[in-house]
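Might you be able to review the protein record set out just below?
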Amino acid sequence: MKGGFWRELNKLSELYEAMLKASPLSSEEVKFVKEVLKELSEKPLEEFDFSKLKKVVEIADKLSREGGTRLAFEF
């Protein structure tokens, strides 16, 4: 199960990165999302600060509103 979770997280990360190439996000927002996804993949879930995901959701919402797609928010 754990391997499947990380494979899916990796797929989502790659998809998100592809979407960011033509995004309205600032470089700081892109960097933050990448850092959070990297941290999530490297740390045990018990040690991860899930409050960072709130900011990722806000960034995804901005991308979906300004980028015209709900896919970012669904991520």
About this structure: Residues 2-74 form one domain. The CA atoms of residues 65 and 73 lie 9 Å apart. Helices lie at 2-20, 27-42, 52-67, 71-74.
